[in-house]
Amino acid sequence: MNELIIRPATTEDAGIILSFIRELAVYEKEPDAVVATEQDIVNNLFNPETTTKALIGLSNGQPVGFAVYFLNFSTWLGQDGMFLEDLYVSPDQRGRGFGKAMLKHLAQLAVERGCGRFEWNVLDWNEPAIRFYESLGAKAQSEWVGYRLEGQSLANLAGK
Length: 160
Description:
Blueprint: E1 4-8, H1 14-27, H2 38-45, E2 52-59, E3 62-74, E4 79-89, H3 98-112, E5 117-120, H4 127-135, H5 151-157
Parallel strand pairs: 4-5
Antiparallel strand pairs: 1-2, 2-3, 3-4
Helix pairs in contact: 1-2
């Protein structure tokens, strides 16, 4: 494997992050779902008030993947947790250990911050990812069902 450099993303990475997001959406069979712009990435991912962070993985100086994560809080543990929103490695770079290296880096960050959990979601049809995560010791949380409010439903609940 070529050496992987993992570094915090900067505003200069907004374009490559958006490109990776679009590639991920194609992989997840939702190519038209991405409405984010490069300016949205700059304004929101790099806002000084956000708890969301991004990492860029580089091999031979070229971006090969990214991760976006944020901290949450477990009331039962009384500790912060880390939630991985997205992890993506370019298709031509998969199988070289970059995904595992990114997860290991994130796990180290979580441990350094005193997080009691490191969690993420995976689509139920994504067997390669499921096998990969389970090979690392991750366990599926089948007792929870995710819910989402967005768009007009979110605005309606907010009274807007």
